[in-house]
């Protein structure tokens, strides 16, 4: 084998990415993991209803809603972790 000169090193072109706005990113993330925004909406709804109940003097209902808020936050957190696991599994393939 004859050793010739090495091939010229040419830099490979950098990929061009489109600037992603807030709305585009929000829609993409919602499509990837739709349970997280749903859990956030449930948490906000239960919190709001609990605060309204507290203001109206319905202490029992207010306490119930604060406990439901904790459950909704737990659901949101579990959905977030589940989405992270699914994303990590997809990136390994």
Automatic annotation (TrEMBL):
Keyword annotations of the record: Membrane, Transmembrane, Transmembrane helix
InterPro entries from the UniProt entry: Hypoxia_induced_domain, RCF1
PROSITE patterns given in the database record: HIG1
Residue span(s) of domain HIG1: 7-93
Location(s) in or outside the cell: Mitochondrion membrane
Pfam name, any one: HIG_1_N
Transmembrane segments: 35-54, 66-89
Protein name: HIG1 domain family member 2A, mitochondrial
Organism the protein comes from: Apteryx mantelli (North Island brown kiwi)
């Amino acid at each position: 084998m004859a050793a010739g000169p090495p091939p010229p090193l040419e830099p490979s072109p950098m990929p061009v990415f489109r600037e992603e706005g807030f709305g585009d990113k929000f829609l993409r993330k919602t499509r990837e993991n739709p349970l997280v925004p749903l859990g956030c909406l449930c948490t906000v709804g239960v919190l709001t209803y609990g605060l309204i109940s507290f203001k109206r003097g319905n202490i029992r209902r207010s306490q119930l809603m604060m406990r439901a808020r904790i459950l909704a936050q737990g659901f949101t957190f579990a959905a977030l972790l589940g989405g992270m696991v699914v994303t990590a599994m997809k990136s390994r393939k």
